[in-house]
Amino acid sequence: LNYLSHEAYWYFFKTLSFGSMDPVSHKRLLCLAIEISRDSFDIHFWCKVLSFYRCFIKKSICKFGEHPFVLVNQNKPIQIGRMATPSQAFMVYREYQCTSQEEVPKIKMDDVMVGNVRPHGKFEALGWSSQLPPYYNCVYTCEILEMKTTPAKRKRSVKN
Asked: The organism sits in which domain of life (predicted)?
């Protein structure tokens, strides 16, 4: 028996993951499935990530009436919380694609969200990379904002 080619393994993976659906029409799902298959299989971590995304998407739909990825595709800014630092807002302003490896940022979106990387101010972050031809990368323009906390007001006692 010979080993399968890299492309054959990806075809097998896509078929198992997506069935008859076209993974190209679900690029983010494809990227997420690839990351999960490649990285950690820690069930508690992935349950926490799934819960975080569900909450984030639900809040966005309640507040803006649309899925956050639809808003980003329309070049409208969205606010994503950070799993590691809830006191910071993670803003995503726009999305663009590039094919050149020279243009790809070193910072990854998922690393920023879980707190592995702590950039300041505006920056470019890699959302995902295609593992299939034409091998393009999805890059986001982002910013980390410090949330302003307001001190609790004290109640004054009223003396007669």
From this structure: Eukaryota
pTM of the model: 0.61
Q: How far apart are CA 4 and CA 9, in angstroms?
A: 7
Helix 6-18 vs helix 27-38: angle between axes, to the nearest 10 degrees? Answer: 110
* Model confidence pLDDT, tens digit, residues 13-41: 777 766 777 766 777 777 776 666 666 56
Distance between CA 144 and CA 147 in Å, rounded? Answer: 9
Q: What is the structure's pLDDT at 148?
A: 67
Geometric angle at alpha carbon 152, from 146 and 158, rounded to 5°: 160
What residues form DSSP beta bridges with 125? Answer: 140
**Based on the number of CB atoms within 10 Å of its own CB, is 30 exposed (0-12), middle (13-18) or buried (19 or more)?**
buried
* φ and ψ of 56, to 5 deg: -60, -45
Rounded Cα–Cα distance for residues 143 and 100 (Å): 23
Beta-carbon count within 10 A of 112 CB? 25
Res 83 pLDDT > 60: yes
Beta bridge partners of 81: 89
**Encoding tokens for residue 114?**
């879980």
